[in-house]
């Protein structure tokens, strides 16, 4: 087991994990995953659950950190008022591309609300990096804030967005709704009322 400063739910080994009909609220972590830090899991399912008011003080994922899983699904859940001191106010998605190259970290988020979350640097709602993949379908990202990517920040990896509302997110620098630094994306979303101080109100 690896020692990290985390709070809420902490998993650090290969396992299948289901979080269902749960409320994870007002937890604080010094580094990763204020609400939950889920590392190296084989399959994670988050169903009909709420992550609210959680904080990662200095690092990533105020709500939930999904790191080097094989696959994870988030369905019918709410992420609200979570904060991160760096990246991913609600959700941060990353993988170790060498040691855990066999674990694709393929994430699917469906019918989920991600609202009023904030991060200091990247991805007020969602932060995805390190050749992970994300499918975001039938969901709402609204009123999230960050310096870059108020709604979503992507660097590397693959993102597909379908039938999703991206509204009223704000960036203090670039990309109010969505910021793509690198990687590939296919986006079919309704962008409305997003703002950025410097450029890219929507994208």
Describe this structure in words.
The protein has 203 residues and is an all-beta fold. The protein has one domain (9-196). It contains no helices and 26 strands. The protein has strands spanning 9-12, 16-20, 23-25, 28-29, 36-39, 43-47, 50-52, 55-56, 64-67, 71-75, 78-80, 83-84, 91-94, 106-110, 113-115, 118-119, 126-128, 133-137, 140-142, 145-148, 152-154, 158-167, 170-174, 178-180, 184-192, 195-196. Strands 2, 3, 6, 7, 10, 11, 14, 15, 18, 19, 22 and 25 form a twelve-stranded parallel sheet that branches. Strands 1-5-9-13-17-21-24 form a seven-stranded parallel sheet, with no helix packed on it. Strands 4-8-12-16 form a four-stranded parallel sheet, with no helix packed on it. The protein starts with 8 loop residues before the first strand and ends in a 7-residue tail after the last strand.
Secondary structure elements and their pairing?
Layout: E1 9-12, E2 16-20, E3 23-25, E4 28-29, E5 36-39, E6 43-47, E7 50-52, E8 55-56, E9 64-67, E10 71-75, E11 78-80, E12 83-84, E13 91-94, E14 106-110, E15 113-115, E16 118-119, E17 126-128, E18 133-137, E19 140-142, E20 145-148, E21 152-154, E22 158-167, E23 170-174, E24 178-180, E25 184-192, E26 195-196
Parallel strand pairs: 1-5, 2-6, 3-7, 4-8, 5-9, 6-10, 7-11, 8-12, 9-13, 10-14, 11-15, 12-16, 13-17, 14-18, 15-19, 17-21, 18-22, 19-22, 20-23, 21-24, 22-25, 23-26
